[in-house]
Amino acid sequence: GNSVTQMEGPVTLSEEAFLTINCTYTATGYPSLFWYVQYPGEGLQLLLKATKADDKGSNKGFEATYRKETTSFHLEKGSVQVSDSAVYFCALSGTGFQKLVFGTGTRLLVSP
Amino acid sequence: DTAVSQTPKYLVTQMGNDKSIKCEQNLGHDTMYWYKQDSKKFLKIMFSYNNKELIINETVPNRFSPKSPDKAHLNLHINSLELGDSAVYFCASSSPGGYNEQFFGPGTRLTVL
Fold first, then answer.
1. Where are the beta strands (DSSP E) in A18-55?
2. Which of A43, A51, A89 lies nearest to residue B105, judging by beta carbons?
């Protein structure tokens, strides 16, 4: 079945540091890939997505590229802010009536 | 303006009780979902409905029964609550054919004592 593997956290960074959160997946066919973010006490928000190989999703300074050859979708940001502290979830989905399959989530803590 | 709303936000109850969580979306989506997030933040699908019809039913105890009175609502009823049911339950919705981008509600934190 489909699965997503994320690096374990927490990831602790100082403000303005470079961020990478690794995500790899196993799937049949050509899934869509997503990064969701969960701020403390809130629900999940879609951060970015990519629907086919070599697509790059980007939003709020975050980027991730759909790499079919390495089955990866790593999240990056050049300069993190304290307000980026949250839990980040990598997820995949097939087409049609497909459930989202989530990774275990990675907590990011950014200190001033 | 709320896209996906859930009630209640917090629910504290005793073991053995029956409770319901309600979800409504005003996005005009056809498909709705229930997810469970455990204490370690792990998220797992429970159910999905499309136009009031059940399309995904993961391995969930039959004490959990979803009900969709119309395509804008998907409620979750839980019978005979157990300690292990304590979790945050998220409702979500999506429009099929749109690469399955899902919009999530704020969650309902259920605590079973």
1. 19-21, 23-26, 32-38, 44-50
2. A43
